[in-house]
Every structure is written in C-alpha cells, then in structure tokens.
C-alpha cells in the first residue's frame, strides 16, 4: 500500500478491531486475494503518487478524519468491538441453544427420576411380593419370572449374536456381564442399551465428518493453490496462471487416485 494509505488514521483505528484483524487474516490466505493484492499494489501506488491524487489529498484527509470520528463513535457506543472475536460471537449465538439444552436435560432427568420413584419401584415391589407368594404356594421358579424365565433358551442365542455384533461394529465401550440378571430377557435390555451407548459416539463422529467434509476439502484446495503460489518467483498474472494450472493438475490427479476402486490412497485432509 502507499504511504498515504498506511498513515490513514481511520485505517489504523480499524486495524485494532479483532473482527477486522481476523477477517484480514482469513482473506490473506485466499489465493485469489493474494493475486489481487500483489497485482493491485503497483497500480494503487502509482495512483497515490500521481498529481490528481495529490490535488485531492486535502479532501481525502477530511474524509479520513470523518471516518476516524465515525469509528471512534462506534467504539464508544459498542466497546465490545475492541474485544469481540468471531469465536465470541459464535459462543454468544449458542447461549440460548445451550440454555435450552440444559433445561430440557434437567427436565428429562426429573421426569425419569419421578417415574422411577413413583411408578417403577412400587410396581416392581408388588411384582416381587406376588412372585414370592406364587413360588411358595403354587410353583417354585427359583426367583425367575414365570413367563420371561421360560423363554431363556430361545433368547440366549439371540443375546450372543447381539453381543457379538455390538463388539464387532462398535468395539469401544463397557462390557455387559453374563451374570447378575435373573433372565436372559433382562440381559437383552442391557445389551440393547449398551449397543445404543456404543453407537451414539460413532454416529456423532460420522455426522460431524459428513458435515465438515465440504469445509475440509475447500481448505485442502486452498492449501494446494497457496503451495503452488509460494513456489512462484512473484505473483504476476503470468506466474499466477502457471500456479493455477499446476494446482488444478494436482487436484485432478488426487481425484483420479481417490476414485480408483483399489489401492491404499490416503484421505484428503485439511492442511
């Protein structure tokens, strides 16, 4: 940039805003912006040093002072401009969602706790009392429920297959013990809950990977173009076009390698 632009009071004040700093850092990494800046600097310097620009210098200074006062007013009206970053804005935007999520979670826990205290426990106690009476007076089931206990031979093989499938597809997680359940049906419920607990993190990772795939590939494409530009002596239009062709060839070769049905090709990741 020219000296006149560098000495601009409004520009210097704007540079102190974190949001503008982050925006500048982001744009500085875009190949198109790098090429535009490199080719525009000589033109801007030439215009800034021309006689018409010098004649308009007083008016430019007045405009710069007005812009500086405007930024000063905005800074006083919203002091957060001096501290806020894009990460802070994202956090602030998620506050209502996080609060709602916590509230729903607490309400669910209270509801489940009430259901366990006032519904399940009394019903289970009555069933246990009736089972004890039935075992003493009618038929001894050895502490097992009469109906559910009678189908253990049919449920046990299903439990083994469910447990094997869970370990095969989702190896990370706690084991479900073989003992401690009065029936195989009760163990089925425990195995099903274990399956869900193991599957949820895996599903979350897959959803995250799928959602981030466009960003990751865009970041990779940006890195490939920047790497080609860095190898050029300068960013003139001729060299920039040569770097663009090289980057496109690299990306095309990667796409062909990735599309091959066989072969151990590393996944494209963001750099």
From TrEMBL:
<dbReference type="Pfam" id="PF17316">
    <property type="entry name" value="Perilipin_2"/>
</dbReference>
<protein>
    <submittedName>
        <fullName>LAQU0S02e01002g1_1</fullName>
    </submittedName>
</protein>
């Amino acid at each position: 940039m020219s000296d006149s632009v560098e000495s601009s009071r409004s520009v210097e004040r704007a540079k102190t805003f974190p949001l503008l700093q982050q925006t500048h850092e982001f744009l500085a990494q875009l190949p198109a912006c790098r090429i535009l800046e490199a080719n525009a600097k000589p033109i801007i310097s030439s215009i800034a040093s021309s006689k018409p620009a010098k004649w308009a210098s007083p008016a430019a200074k007045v405009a710069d002072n007005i812009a500086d006062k405007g930024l000063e007013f905005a800074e006083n009206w919203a002091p957060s401009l001096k501290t806020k970053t894009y990460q802070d804005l994202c956090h602030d935007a998620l506050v209502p969602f996080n609060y709602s999520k916590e509230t729903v979670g607490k309400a669910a826990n209270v509801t489940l706790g009430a259901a366990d205290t006032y519904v399940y426990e009394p019903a289970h106690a009555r069933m246990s009392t009736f089972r004890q009476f039935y075992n003493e007076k009618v038929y001894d089931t050895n502490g097992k429920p009469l109906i559910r206990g009678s189908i253990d031979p049919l449920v046990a093989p299903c439990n083994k297959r469910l447990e094997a499938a869970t370990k095969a597809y989702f190896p990370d997680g706690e084991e479900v013990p073989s003992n401690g359940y009065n029936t195989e049906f009760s163990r089925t419920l425990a195995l099903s809950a274990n399956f869900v607990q193991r599957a949820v993190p895996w599903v979350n990772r897959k959803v995250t990977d799928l959602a981030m795939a466009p960003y990751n590939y865009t970041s990779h494409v940006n890195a490939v173009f920047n790497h080609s530009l860095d190898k050029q002596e300068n960013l003139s239009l001729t060299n920039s076009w040569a770097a663009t062709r090289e980057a496109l060839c690299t990306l095309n070769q990667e796409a062909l390698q990735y599309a091959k049905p066989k072969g151990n090709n590393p996944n494209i990741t963001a750099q």
